[in-house]
Amino acid sequence: MAEAKQGDRVKVDYTGKLQDGTIFDSSDGREPLEFTIGGGQVIPDFESALVGMNPGDKKTVQIPATRAYGARRDDLVLEVGRDQFPEDIKPEVGDQLQLRQPDGMSAVVTVTEANDQSVTLDGNHPLAGEDLTFDVELVEVA
């Protein structure tokens, strides 16, 4: 059997859970997640947990927030007056918007609060500040 190593293309079935057991993502009912170990397509600790596994092996991987999507940052939350939005954009809680930053780069933000005068935008990743647990099964090493 082929043992997974850096540079291998792998297929993985997984379920991602928060500390309270809430499932935030899963390959259940979908094709396995396919990526190259070391390719930077997934959280580094998720990748490295697969090294040394063989197809059919299962394990549980715990990744602290600091090694996943980082701590929540208050400086990535801002309140903007509704008058700053174009007339055709009516932001509502849960909407994701793409903003152009002063350096020309774009950032995705989530509307977390909205009233008649202002809108609160959060630039944190939705899983920032969360410790994550993944149940993984290596399906294939290519």
Distance between the termini: 11 Å
Q: Can you tell me the overall shape?
A: elongated
Order of helices and strands: EEEHEEEEEE
Q: Number of helical segments?
A: 1
Strand content: 35-45%
Share of residues in helices: under 10%
Q: Can you tell me the CATH architecture of the largest domain?
A: Roll
Quaternary: single chain
Largest pleated sheet? 5 strands, antiparallel
Structural class, by secondary structure, is mainly beta
CATH fold descriptor of the largest domain? Chitinase A, domain 3
Gyration radius, to the nearest Å? 19 Å
Q: Name the poorly predicted regions.
A: none
Provide the CATH top-level class of the largest domain.
Answer: Alpha Beta
Overall pLDDT, averaged?
A: 95
Number of domains: 2
Strand tally: 9
Essential attributes:
1 helix; Chitinase A, domain 3; single chain; Thrombin, subunit H; 41% strand; elongated; five-stranded antiparallel beta sheet
Would you mind describing this structure in some detail?
This protein is mainly beta. The chain has two domains: 9-70 and 127-141, Chitinase A, domain 3 (Roll), CATH 3.10.50; 74-122, Thrombin, subunit H. It contains one helix and nine strands; from the N terminus they run E-E-E-H-E-E-E-E-E-E. It has one helix at 44-50, and strands spanning 9-18, 23-26, 33-36, 58-63, 77-81, 96-100, 106-114, 118-122, 132-141. Strands 1, 2, 3, 4 and 9 form a five-stranded antiparallel β-sheet that branches. It has a four-stranded antiparallel β-sheet with strand order 5-8-7-6, with no helix packed on it. The chain is elongated. The mean pLDDT is 95.
